[in-house]
Amino acid sequence: GNVGIGTTGPLTSLVVSKNLTATTFGDAAARFVGTTYGLGRFYGIGFDYDANHTNQPVALGYVPTNGVGFTEGALAFATRSGTTDVAPTERMRIDSTGNVGIGTTTPSNLLSVFSATAATQGFSGGATKGVWSMGYDVTNNRFAIASSSDITSNVRMVIDNQGNVGIGTTRPYR
Questions:
Q1: What is the pLDDT of residues 117-156, one digit of tens each?
Q2: Cβ within 8 Å of residue 98, ≥6 positions away
């Protein structure tokens, strides 16, 4: 039941094999090509656990971003959080300039992170000694660093929209 393209001994369900001699990207072993192109369309690979679904829960693929011959594009990653058979939502994109966007399809910097929810806006991390987060606190209109995963609580430093800085307080002094 294994299928091999370019090989006579596939070891898994699908093996695509090609003798790659190029030392740069562009000479791929496999290629997925859409029959019609358009800006904003998604040409991707879907991952699923059941062949009876219309939409895959996870996908990655190419999104054309330049209408002149569709020569530029972005790499997009999509997931869905629901249990119903609906299309996944794009969550991360790497654009043609190398900018990475999480929560945005138009990253304007090397790394752009966006969420409409204040509690998830920004960056967070954790280790055995604690959790931290930093980012823009939409609720209070300020940049904050906190000792919790929520930048609206346990705030340790803030910069308000006037540029005032507060360390150890949520109210910066002028």
A1: 655 566 777 666 667 888 888 778 888 888 877 777 888 8
A2: 110
Q: Is 6 helix (H, G, I), strand (E, B) or coil?
A: coil
Stated pTM of the model: 0.70
- Angle in degrees, CA 25, 92, 14, rounded to 5: 55
Are 113 and 105 within 8 A, CB to CB?
no
Token representation of residue 61: 């693929």
Contact by Cβ (8 Å): 122, 133 = yes
Using CA atoms, how far apart are residues 83 and 78, in angstroms rounded to an integer?
A: 15
Residue 141 burial by CB count (10 A; 0-12/13-18/19+): exposed, middle or buried?
exposed
